[in-house]
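User: Fold both of these, please.

Assistant: Here is the first one.
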Amino acid sequence: MKRREFLVGFAVGAPMVRLWLGGSPTVAAQEGAAPAHSAPKHSALANPPSKLDRISISTWSFHNYFQSTREKEFTLPGPMLELLSYPEMIVDRYKVHHFEFCAPHFASREPAYLQELKSALARTRCQLVNIPVDIDELDIEGGLSDPSQKVRDRVVNACKKWIDVAATLGAKSVRCDPGKMDPQNLTPTAQSYRELAAYGKTKGIMVIVENHNGVGSEHPEDLIRLAKLVGTNFGTLPDFGNFPDEVTREMGLPILFPYAHVVCHAKGLEIGADGEEKRFDFPKAIQASKQAGFKGIYSIEFEGPGDPYLGVQRTLDELLKYL
């Protein structure tokens, strides 16, 4: 997600909680799994996990249908979206029960609104995985990496509010950008993230950082150095598409994935009618995640041209092909 271009709950049933405990939600049954009573009583295959259990769809895929992030030049027809109806729409259309809700797409942080979101998630038996915290405060001066403690404190406090939101909605993580990170001096950046990670730990929320917005895209090793400095309750969010070239991608994903404990971005940039991504080697990106032992969620983030509903479907189809 290119935040600078577009700055402008959780009560689930036991089936969805089981995913995070190593089990499989009832989505498997929707995908044709045999009823439990038809399998041997102690068979491990009684409810085989569905590939859909490992997939999320980010609201950023439909950012042009959210008023706060709509591009002026976007002209495709279709109704505007809101978070309260997003889970039901995604479940009905794609049979996916996991989501990323981007911060600009929240209509409010008021308790009543968050309770409505929790109800919408519970009603559709869905799980909020991650909140990308794309907020104005992250662009104050140097953001979380500013040399001034006063500036960093202001930004950290703004991010903590979204950790609270994530905890209320039952998410697993928040993604906060580092701002103007200086690779030669990671100390202020690490201090900010240590404070956020410590606060997140008290709420059961991990803090993660993505290779995008000029940070970690060309030099993903910088994010690994940062992760080692921050330590506990901090990790990475590898994005398949956010690299300048295939060489950097092939180097970057294998070192980012060992620090990815919650989610990655399965980017869709230019998927043709044949179902293949044209801009980068999608199956090789999946293979990198598997080789690293990634056990988290693959969140679809479609950023290609044309109809995003079709783009998400094609990205989903390709993802299912290689998982």
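And the second sequence with its predicted structure:
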Amino acid sequence: MLTVRIVPCLDVSAGRVVKGVRFQNQRDAGSPPERAQAYEAQGADEIVLLDVAATPAGRRARLDVVRSVRAALSIPLTVGGGVADVEDAARLLDAGADKVSVNSAALRDPSLVDCLARRFGSQCTVLAIDAASVPGGGWQALAHSGVEASGRDAVEWAREVGRRGAGEILLTSWDRDGTGDGYDLDLITAVAGATTVPLIASGGAGQAEHVRAAVAAGAGAVLAASIFHDGVLTVGRLKRELSSHGIAVRS
């Protein structure tokens, strides 16, 4: 039986972990290596590190932060932010990332997904989709940390990047991000039904029940930030709650 992965997320700006609501009004949430080390000790299956200031500032992710987090970890590390081309991805992998997440650059040039998958393998290629609901139904993919509408249907985009070789999709609901109101289950169900690429659900976790619902909707892994940063749940407690409801997790 496949186990559900629990993935704490470190959104990083100016070398610090930050957290906001719908990518705005960010507050300080600590040191990246200290947070990463604490979550590994709690039982995290991997860590996602996103340099959320990189793309808006037109720069690459800070390699010094990646190296410091890598030095604190023995579990897998996915890194995103400011990845514009294959060489940017190579630098992150050289700095200690196990997988690289790309969003805005792939929306501009979808062939980047093909290039990353060919050079590094699908297992290293994570496609991040920040999806916002649109009037009349459905969702569109956003770029530049949620401030730019791409015009691409998020579900169709997920289907396309799967064909292009993405090994994983990090699906964030912009509407639910940081709210604690629960994941967008309709979005998860729609994307999970459109592609066979493993799905990491993100955006809105406020309690263990939200995570259970995301798994039932089709997520193979769940990403969360605020509930861990604010001490609402530890990774270990969340895993125990999921296991008590018959969801397989790594002990």
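The radius of gyration is 16 Å.
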